[in-house]
Amino acid sequence: MVEIAPFGVEAWLNKWEKSATYDISQSTIASLTMHEVLNLDGNNGQEFYEMLDQQKMNYGWIEGSPEFKQKVAKLYQHVEPDNILQTNGATGANILALYSLIQSGDHVIAEYPSYQQLYDIPKSLGADVDFWHIHEEDNWYPDIEELKKLIRPDTKMICLNNANNPTGTVLDEAFLKQVVEIAKSVGAYVLVDEVYLPLDDPIKFTSSIDLYDKGIATNSLSKTYSVPGVRIGWTATNGELADLFRKFRDYTMICGGVFNDMIATYVLRHRDQVLARNRKLVLGNLKIYQDWIEHEDRASVVMPQAVSTSFPKLDVPVDIHTFCENLLKDEGVLLVPGDAFDTPKHVRLGYCAPEATLKEGLKRLSKYMHQYD
Question: What pLDDT is recorded for position 1?
Answer without folding.
Answer: 79
